[in-house]
Amino acid sequence: MLLLRFSITYRISFVLKEHDLTLSHNPSEHEGSGVIGTDHADTIHGGNGVVDIRGWAGDDLLFGSVRGGLISGGRGNDTIYTFGFGAPLPQQFQTHAYGDWGNDTFYLGMARYNYDTYANRFGHHVFGGHGADRFIFSGVAQGDQKITGRIDDFDPTQDSIWIGNVRVNLNDLPDNVRIVQHLGQQWILIDNRILYALEGARHASPTIQSDGRNSESSEENHFIYWPEEWADGVPASADVVYRNPVNFIPARFLPVEAQYEHRFSPRDHSFSGTARNDRIEGSPDHGQSLFGLGGHDFIFGNRGDDTIQGGEGNDYIDGYHGHDRIFGGSGNDSIDGGKGHDIIVGGLGHDVIAGGSDNDTLHGSSGDDTIFGGSENDLIFGDSGNDALYGGSGNDRLNGGVGADILDGGDGHDRLWGGVGNDRMLGKSGNDWLHGGDGHDHLYGGWGNDTVFGHHGHDLIFGGPGNDRLFGNSGNDHLYGDAGDDHLDGGYGNDILVGGVGRDTIAGGAGTDRLHGGASADRFVFFTQNDSRPGQGRDVIVDFTPGEDKIDVSRLDADLSRAGNQALIFNPNGPAEHAVWLIREGRGISVRADLDGDGVQDFAVWLAGVQRIVASDFIL
């Protein structure tokens, strides 16, 4: 009995926003400096250094690092921890946190520990997104450095600010909190050293630069230093009564901030952005055509059946509700179809695409894309590039296209095509159909009664639990049935076949093959003399058990000179015409057969470690 134990982990890297991101096959809880989660509730720990963490969907728990980057919750009610600025660094950094959809909680770490590299520090750049969000300043009592930051879309009608476990009433401030006016904006000042803007970015002209001076351009600069005139303290004359401002909300945290925001009335049916970085939000009343054009754009489709084109730049597009048609264009885009039957094409660049709920059709197009189908029955095409495709729940169809791809069917009865390239394919649960295509592929059926084809190349195929059908086709393949009553067919090439636990049917096919039945009563099937020729070309059955396993030679034609399929006879006394006989050879037995009537072997297979077999061990 041969026992196999194996595990498969898929891990890829691709470039997005000029940082390396790592996508783990099952990132329900893991660490990394750049990670994308799943549509489940993930726990992700960012490592030290610049991080990019995207929870995607689900109620996620995300932990950021001390050195900037982006932490994005995605859909769901997420909890985002951004740790303090505790390490001495050669230059200043800031951390971007984006909640996206849902009621999110942000822990804005202020801890400084014992370091004093800079007297002033950049803090957080936070965008809560849709939903009632909580912004919690933690570790306020630790350290004495001055820290500046911003909350871009604070809405006092639904959002809240906390210091530790105490909620701040902006109309009845605690002793250590003030609302101050600076450069035409309202700021919250905590302990006379933590200064956060509550109105986000200013309108396009004039622009506030990072040194506090006005810019002659209409482009908002990224961050603001602690005001020089407040170096010795913030005067009482700066105090104001808090009022609910009209925010200018910039785009998602991409390499350059948004410069324009566009919202539309129900009368608008089409709108084009600018060559700069736009934030475009459609009408909730009907479908629209929205075009980002140039720049790094942030586009919301809202509730209608929308047509959205990102254009040039690294865009973030959310179709939200409705049956949308979304085209990313050039650039490394992030696209979420939301609810509805969506058609999404990533276009040029390394894109991240999520279909959301309902039946979607998703194309990565060129580039190394990551695509999530979500719920229901999706069609997913990687097209060219080294893509990662995830079907999610539902009966999905995944096609990797050209490139070294990762395909994960998820739940449901899925159909996966690897295409051209060395692919990694996982059917997961359900009765799945997998086809590796050209290239040296790794295919795992997962749970269920799966059908798996290696096709061209030297393939590694695992059936997983269930009654599976595995076909190596051409190439030197390795086939492992695992648990269940499996059918294994090596096809052409020198293959290794392992049935595993269960009553398996094993056919090596043409070539010199090694056959392992595993536990239970197995059947070894030979169709033609090419399946196991005498000499160096013969097959080896490694674990044949007399009285339990069977050698099926009923498909062999005992007389090639006659029409039809003539049955062989068993001759225990040695070579004979149109017969099967046995020769003791080394530490096993050689099974031989004559197929042309000359009494000389035309077919042979060696049974390793077997000392005696009888006629009842054959199917003639």
Automatic annotation (TrEMBL):
Q: Where in the cell is it found?
A: Secreted
How is this protein named in the record?
Answer: Calcium-binding protein
UniProt key word Secreted: yes
Task: Give the record's keywords alphabetically.
Answer: Secreted
Q: Name one GO molecular function term.
A: calcium ion binding
- One Pfam family name is HemolysinCabind
Q: What is its main location?
A: secreted
Q: SUPFAM superfamilies given for it?
A: beta-Roll
Q: Does the keyword Secreted apply?
A: yes
Recorded superkingdom: Bacteria
Q: Which GO terms describe its cellular component?
A: extracellular space
Question: What phylogenetic lineage does the species belong to?
Answer: Bacteria, Pseudomonadati, Pseudomonadota, Alphaproteobacteria, Rhodobacterales
